[in-house]
User: Fold this.
Amino acid sequence: MATVFSKGIKPLFLAFLFTFSLVVTGWAHTMPVSEIDLNGISPAATLGSIKQVYGEPLTKESLVNGNVRSIRYQYGPLLEITGSTALDSGLGEDELLVSGFRCKANNFYTPRGFKVDQPISKVISLFGAGEKFTSRDTNGQETSSYLYIFPNDRADILIFYTDMAGFITEIAYRNNLSGNGR
Assistant:
């Protein structure tokens, strides 16, 4: 005879444990949120301040996804910066806070000096491994990504992508709320 635990509660309990283990391992690091900064490109920067430092982007793309409005700046193939806000915020383009970036250039550094072309072991030795995922790129080569999830009100995530040899190939940031909090 099946019990209530085996019929309904057990699957829910197992799902909870699985989800909890994913969340806890992504937060199992000591990296401070201040490390989400590449030469001044950070969640505290606006697109206006980015343009003052780096000039006008080569291309600009406006996006709307649900109730979020985003503008993506492309500074060539190695640097992309996105600013986002709530669709009804009334904020102008220059006022949008950075909500994401992707950097493949090796001349952009985090505050602790991490950059593309360095071994990920330097990051891990200082802050722990975060959450590691392994996949294959378009050429079938194995790659890894190390996610550092920050339990703050913006749901910030800093990601280090690596090649087979364990060298950083890209540093990316995103937040999952993108409403600018204003």
Notes: The first helix runs from residue 4 to 26.
